[in-house]
Amino acid sequence: MPNWKLINKTYIYDGSFEGLLTIVFNSYVEKTLPQKIVSQDKYIENFLDKTNYVKTDYDKSTRIFDAIPKVICSDALRNSYYAFLSDDKDKEINILKYLCNGFDTGPEINNKITISYVFKVISLRKRAMAECHKLKGLLRFQEIGENLCYASINPDNNIIEPLRTALY
Amino acid sequence: MDIFEKLKILSDSAKYDASCSSSGSNRKNTSSGIGNGNVSGICHSWGADGRCISLLKILFTNACIYDCKYCINRCSNNVKRATFTPREVADLTINFYKRNYIEGLFLSSAVIKSPDYTMELLINTINILRNEYNFNGYIHCKTIPGCSKELIDKLGSMVDRMSINIELPSNDSLKLLAPQKEKAGILTPMSYVSNKLKINKLEKRKESFVPAGQTTQLIIGATPESDLKILKLSESLYKKLSLKRVYYSAYISVNNDKNLPALESPPLLRENRLYQADWLLRFYGFKAEELLSEAHPNFNNVLDPKCEWALRNLDKFPVEINKANYFTLIRVPGIGVISAKKIIKARRNFELNFDSLKKLGIVLKRAKYFITCKGKYYDKVYKFNENFIETNLVYQERNTLNKPDFEQLSLFDKLQPTKEDKIKCLTGNL
Questions:
Q1: A141–B349 C-beta distance less than 8 A
Q2: What does the pLDDT average to over B81-101?
């Protein structure tokens, strides 16, 4: 990965995990690294940026999704997914570098905590899951109907999905 | 008396029990049931008054026949008495659980009529929860000292964790302050449970019996036992009866009695030191004799037990981070189990220096005096002797000591740490 070509472009994707995996696929095949990756709802127009909209390709994303547990390890998939849920503006580029390096090095990648993007991905996962764990205890439901409970939350990270699995 | 008044009286009485921690139990949800007990443990949430409400902690009744001198619910005290019915407790638990206010139930009780009668009431409650409501959440139940074996069997098959409080750390103190309780009445059920757990493990039986083990609680400061004696007792409880936890509870002066010490404030610092030492026993491979000796039977007021031990054993230091094994690493003050594992994982790929330790999130505040990286000391540590290290450990706390008065949320009113406590106390991770 060190001698991959850096291209001076901003990639825009649809904000889904599959979209990010599509970018990972393209980058890995072309051996290029973009300067920045932004989801389309967060992107602010800027006349200096050369943008490139990446269309989500479910075929490509599924291939990457299946390859991560096989080639790297299942923990790497968890790391990247939970880091993806976190609220950080550089999360995409860090996950991309983490996964691309992971495909080259294998499961050892998780031990190389001194590489900055590996450390970043792991700490992002920790941040998102810490909030999830906190809300697991602090969420308070009200009964609003027959077998229907309601609670309102305002989390920093996008943790509704792991929170659901944690509670039920 | 309506259920809210009962709840108020009985949940208030239950706050004197220290234990409220996690399970280690793994009870799966059944198809039509509610909830599950999770291996990762109970997560905590806090009420507005700072009280931990991860478990619904209540007494079944506070109408006690015993007259233990230290207890607020002793029969000679004039307090409001209340008793739940099994159905009421079960309904309360389910309703709180549905709204995610609690993760499980912690059911304790005073002794009403006789130990066996009380146990039967507790069993009824849990039976309703488990078999009628199909509640699969975490349940921790107190065993009443002096109850019969059959009842322990029955209760153990339904709960996740059981506990009997020893309360007073020696037989003499027990005679003095709780004359109706007997040492045998406490230890027999305990060893019965631990034997049964061992047998189940050896024979690989599938039946569920107290999957999260048993715990106990000791009261600190009501009687003159030294820290060494208490720590030795806990050590033997862990070793011989394979207890999961021993809780320490600083004695709170609620009754006046000639046999009780008159304490203005509970010995919270001593409780904290004992918990720190307890951790060292369970996870760090320390022995009670290493931490304390006949010459120093009590813990230091300023330094935590691990720092104290390290200063007395400076010949074992400094430790080279890149070479030391796991068991040597966890004995360094400031490096805990998690940090040690991180170091071992990271150094497979890189030789670590102080910068990379910081990056890993390892706190060097105390550790820096006891370690070397690539054969070098931390740059500000230019001397390696007891005096220098001890002075620095205390000196670096000056900011914490001079802070303006803060408020520590407490279960009990008027029990804020005194100024003296703050100066005495070096805070932070072990």
A1: no
A2: 86
